[in-house]
Structures are given as structure tokens and as C-alpha cells.
Amino acid sequence: MSDFFQGTAPLKYDPEAEGLAFRHYNPDELVQGKRMEDHLRFAVAYWHSFAWPGGDPFGGQTFDRPWWGETMEGARLKAEIAFEMFEILGVPFFCWHDADIRPEGATFDESKRNFDEIIALFEEKMESSKTRLLWGTANLFSHRRFMSGAATNPDPDVFAWSAATVKNCLDATHRLNGENYVLWGGREGYETLLNTDLGQEMDHMGRFLSMVVEYKHKIGFKGQILIEPKPQEPTKHQYDYDVATVYGFLQRFGLEKEVKVNIEQGHAILAGHSFEHELAMARELGILGSIDMNRNDYQSGWDTDQFPNNVPEVALAYYEILKAGGLQKGGTNFDAKLRRQSLDPSDLIAAHAGAMDVCARGLKAAARMLEDGALETARRARYAGWETPEAQAMLTSDLDTIARRVAGGGINPEPRSGQQEKLENIVNRYV
């Protein structure tokens, strides 16, 4: 054991505790007949928790961690401390990119050797840990070779490098019995159409994803393949902008039954949507896979990746998730990072514990809203007119027939209130 967390004991559920504890997250509490832990399926993000140096667009590193530096010794120490934190928090899952867990080698083969060694270390640690792998993914955006994308890069050698990297990461995810594999297209887009062949890039991205699905079946990986919608940053336009865009892309390449989405709250906001909108859209399209839980600073126009603290927002998100039947193989991954002034190791524990409490409160509020049924009753009443035989007949009719029904004063509709404020008041009773 290291002394990084200074002997912090595993957190307990204790609403009256003075120090670090869970006030609302009780993993064994039943919500709709299911343990809270099994609903929420929390995961720690390896990158923000252990690889992020505390910088922002205007300043560099502020954190001082004992594992900093591109060495295998540091990578092994990082893994040791990561699993200590998983135990303190009692989380069932974690997630990684390849670049988070190993130092970059001088060659592809050296990087792979470093990666394989850490995967073997994870495998060893997971034998005595309750924490499993929610998903793995490849970092195909940070290194300068990816400045013009990975699958969409105009250089075929970058496409090849990216494909080989994803193969390694999918192999490792399979080895660790991961429940999902995520493709996060951080730079799959363009900055100007003046130097971009939009059609070719989308075709290459589609073929790349098809190869991933083919390889999944070849190796017998039973997990979900997920795409994480990503708008606006860092490029001007990205091909995986939001859930609807991703679904159209999947349909074009015949992958809508093979691939689902990992939806991030912060990305939903950057796309001009609410989190619950993206979740509802994915539910209706049948592609809801997993979520990245965080929040943005609404006074900033970029992805600040803060830990969630807004219970009403979180409640509406879990409301949509519960309506979809839950997260299944997915989970709640905290794709969130400390503020650059939050320097202490205890800040990492406090941030996750607080976020887990917020999600627990949101889940319980969402479950009560569904059980009481006030929102669904109002929704059904608004669309009740469509339950009549005449209304249903219109959906299999034609314009001439419908027009004859309206002609001669047969129909003269009057507007009816959508009652938005009343519905918002209902939500506020629960949160």
C-alpha cells in the first residue's frame, strides 16, 4: 500500500458523518427492486483522476503526483494508487485509454509492450478487487500524429496506426472481461472544408468502425461497441456530433444493430441539447449504451468536465435511463476532473463521493417520479386524441382522404395548453 491517500478508510454510507462518507449513496438500498449499486454502476475515469496534470487552456500543470513522468515505474505506481482509490470508494468499475495507463514508447512496439505489462498488472489486481472494467478505449487524439484525425486522417499510415492501436485496446478489454469498448473520435472532423474531402473521410470512418465490429465477433468479445458523440471541440465540425448524427452514420453503414452510444452530459450541452434529450433520443432509437456523467460551467463555452452537483439535471437524466430499462451493460462513468486548484489527494475522494451522492439522489427522485406517474399521466393525456380509431386511421391513410375529413367544418381544432410550468412544478416536488 502507498501512503498517497494517507490511510483513508473505505467510505461508508453514513448520513450523519462529519468527514468523508456517503450521505445518500447506499449501494445496497433497493430502488425499484434493484440494488442502487446495480442501477448506477459507477466507474472511475483513469485519465482525469490519474493522468490529468491540472492544466487548462491558459496554464499548465498544477498537480504534483508521485507517478508523473513517462516511466514504467510511474505507471506501476499509478496503477497501485488507482486500485487503492477504487477500494476507498467501493466503485464496481473503472475505465481507461491506452495512453492513460502506459508511457509512450519510441516505437509502436515499445508502446505495446508497456501497455501489455500494465494490462497484466490490472489483471493481477482485479483478482483481489471488486472493481471490474466498464470499458477500454484508445487515445487517438492527444499525440500530434492525430492532429488531422485517426480514421478520418488523410494519411493512410495514421489510419493503419489507429487500426492497430484499437486492435490492441480491444484485445486488452476482452482480456480483462470489459463490458464495453468505446470509440471516442476526439479529432474525427475538420477545421476547414478548403482542405477536406468530407465524403471520403466519412467513408473511411464507416469502414474503420465496421472493421472494429468484425474484429469483435472474430475474438468473441461479448461487450457492447459504443461511439461517444462529440461536438465542436477541438475541430470546427465533427462527424459524430450528437446522438441523431451518430444514428444516421450507423444506418448508412448498416451498423445500427451493432453499435450503441456512450453519452456525455458535457457533450450534450456543447451540441446545443440537454442531457435528457440525448438520452431520450438514444432510447427511442434503441442505441442507449452507457453514460459519462459530468457537467459544464454554463458561463464557459467549452467542455469543463466538472463533477456533477445539480440534482434536478441528474434526476431528469436517470428518469430517461429508467424509462429505457436501465443501463444494462453500461454504467455511470465519472468523466470528470478536479479543478486545477484542488491539489490534495483527499479532493479526489471528496469529488467522487459527492458526485456519487448527487447521482444517488437523482436516481431516487427519478424512480419516485416514475412510480407516482404524474409526468407520464400528463404526457398520455396530451396525446390521448391519437388513441381514437379515426386518428389512428390517418397514419395509414393519404392526404386526399384526410383533407375530406377536414373539409366542410368536420374538424376545427382549438389550441390546448402544454402545461409546461405545471410539469416543472411536479418535478420540483421530487428534487
Automatic annotation (TrEMBL):
<feature type="binding site">
    <location>
        <position position="264"/>
    </location>
    <ligand>
        <name>Mg(2+) 1</name>
    </ligand>
</feature>
<feature type="active site">
    <location>
        <position position="97"/>
    </location>
</feature>
<comment type="similarity">
    <text>Belongs to the xylose isomerase family.</text>
</comment>
<feature type="binding site">
    <location>
        <position position="335"/>
    </location>
    <ligand>
        <name>Mg(2+) 1</name>
    </ligand>
</feature>
<keyword id="KW-0413">Isomerase</keyword>
<feature type="binding site">
    <location>
        <position position="228"/>
    </location>
    <ligand>
        <name>Mg(2+) 1</name>
    </ligand>
</feature>
<dbReference type="GO" id="GO:0009045">
    <property type="term" value="F:xylose isomerase activity"/>
</dbReference>
<feature type="binding site">
    <location>
        <position position="264"/>
    </location>
    <ligand>
        <name>Mg(2+) 2</name>
    </ligand>
</feature>
<feature type="active site">
    <location>
        <position position="100"/>
    </location>
</feature>
<dbReference type="InterPro" id="IPR013452">
    <property type="entry name" value="Xylose_isom_bac"/>
</dbReference>
<keyword id="KW-0460">Magnesium</keyword>
<keyword id="KW-0963">Cytoplasm</keyword>
<dbReference type="InterPro" id="IPR036237">
    <property type="entry name" value="Xyl_isomerase-like_sf"/>
</dbReference>
<feature type="binding site">
    <location>
        <position position="305"/>
    </location>
    <ligand>
        <name>Mg(2+) 2</name>
    </ligand>
</feature>
<protein>
    <recommendedName>
        <fullName>Xylose isomerase</fullName>
        <ecNumber>5.3.1.5</ecNumber>
    </recommendedName>
</protein>
<keyword id="KW-0859">Xylose metabolism</keyword>
<dbReference type="InterPro" id="IPR001998">
    <property type="entry name" value="Xylose_isomerase"/>
</dbReference>
<keyword id="KW-0119">Carbohydrate metabolism</keyword>
<feature type="binding site">
    <location>
        <position position="292"/>
    </location>
    <ligand>
        <name>Mg(2+) 1</name>
    </ligand>
</feature>
<comment type="subunit">
    <text>Homotetramer.</text>
</comment>
<keyword id="KW-0479">Metal-binding</keyword>
<feature type="binding site">
    <location>
        <position position="303"/>
    </location>
    <ligand>
        <name>Mg(2+) 2</name>
    </ligand>
</feature>
<feature type="binding site">
    <location>
        <position position="267"/>
    </location>
    <ligand>
        <name>Mg(2+) 2</name>
    </ligand>
</feature>
